[in-house]
Amino acid sequence: MTAELTEAPPKRRDILAAVFRFQSLFGLVLVFLAAVVYSPSKNGELLFLDSGNLFNVVRSISEIGILAVGMTLVILIGGIDLSVGSVLGLASVGSAVLLVNNDLGVVPVVLAVLAIGLGFGLLQGVAVARFRIQAFIVTLAGMQIARGLARIWSGGQGITITYGDAPGQAPAVFSLLGERTFDGLVPIPALIFIVVAALAVLLLRVSSFSRHVYAIGGNEKAARLSGVPVNRVKVLVFGICGLLAALAGIVHAGQLNFGGPNDGAMYELDAIAAVVIGGTSLSGGRGSVVGTVAGALLVGVLRNILALNNVDSNVQLLIIGLVIVLAAGLQRLRPASVS
Amino acid sequence: MTRKSAIVLGACVLLAACGTTHENTGAAGPSSAAKCGGPSGSYTIGMSQANVAEPYRQRMDDDIRAAAAAVPQFKVNFADAAQDNSKQVEQVDNFLTQQIDLLIISPNEATPLTAPVKRAFDKGIPVLVLDRKVDGDAYTEFIGADNVDIGRQAGQYFANVLLPQGGKIAEIRGLAGSTPAKERGDGFAQGIQGHNVQIVATQDGDWLRDKGQQQADAILKAHPDIQAIYSQNDPMAEGARIAAQNAGRADLPITGIDGLPIEAGGIKAVEAGRLSATFVYPTGGKEAIDAAKKILLDCQPVPKTQTLGTQLVTKANAAQVYATLNEGK
What is its main location (chain B) (predicted)? Predict the structure, then answer.
């Protein structure tokens, strides 16, 4: 084949590839523009574009966003993690108990809780990789186990975190998680989310780990045959996902000054929604963290503009459901050659 | 209202605003007068509900909607947090973006909602807290019933009416970790204290009918000698009734709490004889709109706390209580 003959089709395919690759970014821009158009205004000012409001949106998705970054990795290897919401609850309870009842400092508490999340994830990874139990089942069990642990550890009660130097009070620095920096504008959880997302993008750009993850998701058998340490990568991915769920739990506890044994329920589904809207294929091997971040933001902006217009909460559920279906539908339209 | 009376009222309001100081007027604390535009204004009220999956909370919204419909100056925006603290924080933030004139909130949990409620209050927006409290005192008025007291009255009903000679009973509790479950349990324990009523089985029914049935099934198997069941809400009590019937104990006395004045609610269940009694847990919806009227239209101060009383509902007064609670609907 000569160069002239093949020139035109690849170009079109490149554009198509870009559109599909960044479908959630395009979606986000569309939803954002629609939000500006439909924004209620007061005294000639568009309420949606108010900087305080825009940061409210980023803050509101930061926990789900952190979970969704971990979820993206798991889904990229063709897995799923249903336990993240419960692990978030466990981590929020753990943070509160260790700070309040055990009177530990912030650094040991954060390290301990992160270790719990990492350990929980690694165990699930071992069950999936070594014992070949489906991820859906392993993490379904993990979801119940983490929730049970959260309820037992908290004694079934939500634990209030108060700040000060007295025994039973947490160091004030932990309450920073609920605050805003840069002139009281940028919420700390949003910053943490941005850092997590950036690290994940980096991880998936530069390392051989990235190639392994995509290879396993694309074709596990082929990956194994070509020397990818499949089991090790799988265990590690579940570990990272658990670690991030624990981090989200710490953020959750700090933001709300509260460790709730029932908190984080259904967050796993919100995280999966962000990943799917972000264009990551549930069968693995295709997708990106950037897409997930855009997906999470898209849902946040959508929810925000619907709330500002007082759309009934049940109708909001309906609309967000339709967006998920639309995103998944676009996936099916994607030509096989475009990845 | 005629134009003349409106002018007179407006003048009175103006005079009152100039001549009096509110108790919460201060350098830091916002004044309800700051938001008060009198009866000629129009006001947007934000109502943040912990969740509308429970019929009790749906009824609270309905009570607010019905009471606000009678006030042409009021427009109420409703939000549902679906039992999620984070989501409710987000909703309050959204209301602040919308620049509402008054916030009504029934918090999912106290502590997590304290900061956003304070943010609203510090901006000079009057805040009415319904049913569940927030920490501190950065709110305008708390309106709610006393779960401990209702539990206590339920306990006393067991001790004095159902089992005056004493006996063994089972308790089906709400969702573990929720404040009302603890309070309704603590109050009940106080109510039966010193009497020979003994709780031989306690299980969590998560406030749900099917879970209540499931737990009662097991309890009746393990303790066939129990003489009554105390359920912390009506739906679990209804579930327990089905379990009792299946176990051949159709006459087992079962009581609930909530007493919702709706077709599927506890009052009708008492009237039909499925429950021995229930205790009305008022929603405070109507009272909240009354308070909003006082603050926004009349520029009057409101008390910091308004505790709503409960009411024992038995077969004898069920029909009458039902009618009273649905007056004007």
Answer: other
The token pair that represents A132 in the structure block: 């070949």
* For testing contact with chain B, the best of A175, A177, A262 (most B CBs within 10 A): A262
Where do the domains of chain B lie?
43-144+284-307, 147-282+314-326
Q: Which of B253, B181, B248 is nearest to B211 (CA)?
A: B181
What is residue B307's three-state secondary structure?
A: strand
Q: What is the pLDDT of residue B28?
A: 38
Region B261-275: mean pLDDT is 94
- Give A260's contacts in chain B (Cβ within 8 Å): 85, 109, 112, 177
Question: In the structure, what pLDDT confidence band is assigned to residue A268 with cuts at 50, 70 and 90?
Answer: very high
Query: What sign does the CA torsion over A154, A158, A163, A164 have?
Result: negative
The string of DSSP codes covering A40-62 is -EETTEETTT-HHHHHHHHHHHH
Q: Pull the structure tokens for residue B99.
A: 């620049």
Give the domain B43-144+284-307 fold. Rossmann fold (3.40.50)
Q: Decide if B43-144+284-307 and B147-282+314-326 have a common fold.
A: yes
Question: Candidates 1.10.3470, 3.40.50, 1.10.1060, 1.10.10; correct CATH number of A57-333?
Answer: 1.10.3470
Please check the confidence at residue B25 and state whether its pLDDT lies above 50.
Answer: no
With beta carbons under 8 A apart, name residues in chain A contacting B89: 60, 255-256
* Global confidence as pTM: 0.83
Domain limits, chain A = 57-333
Q: Report the topology of domain B147-282+314-326.
A: Rossmann fold (3.40.50)
Instruction: For residues A64 and A272, give the distance between their C-alpha atoms in angstroms, rounded to a whole number.
Output: 9
**pLDDT exceeds cutoff 60 at B99:** yes
Q: Chain B: residue nearest A47 by CA?
A: B97
* Dist. CA A231–CA A208, nearest whole Å: 15
Q: How many CB atoms lie within 10 A of CB A33?
A: 10
Q: In angstroms, what separates the C-alpha of A263 from chain B's closest C-alpha?
A: 7
Q: How large a percentage of chain A has pLDDT more than 90?
A: 72
| pLDDT over threshold 90, residue A43 | no
Rounded distance between C-alpha atoms, residue B222 and residue B204, angstroms: 16
User: Which of A337, A117, A94 has the alpha carbon at shortest distance from A240?
Assistant: A117
Handedness of CA A122, A125, A130, A136 (dihedral sign): positive
Which of A178, A262, A310 lies closest to B177 in CB terms? A262
DSSP one-letter code for B263: T
Residue B24 has pLDDT above 90, yes or no: no
Is B6 a residue whose pLDDT tops 60? Answer: no
CA distance between the termini of chain B: 23
DSSP B137: S
pLDDT tens-digit series, residues A154-203: 988 889 999 998 888 999 999 888 888 887 788 999 999 999 999 999 99
Q: Range with the lowest mean pLDDT among A161-165, A189-193, B59-63, B178-182? A: B178-182
Yes or no: say if B196 and B158 are a contact pair by the CB < 8 Å rule. no
> Best mutation site among A147, A159, A263, A302 for testing chain B: the one with the most B CBs within 10 Å?
A263
Arithmetic mean of pLDDT, B169-176: 93
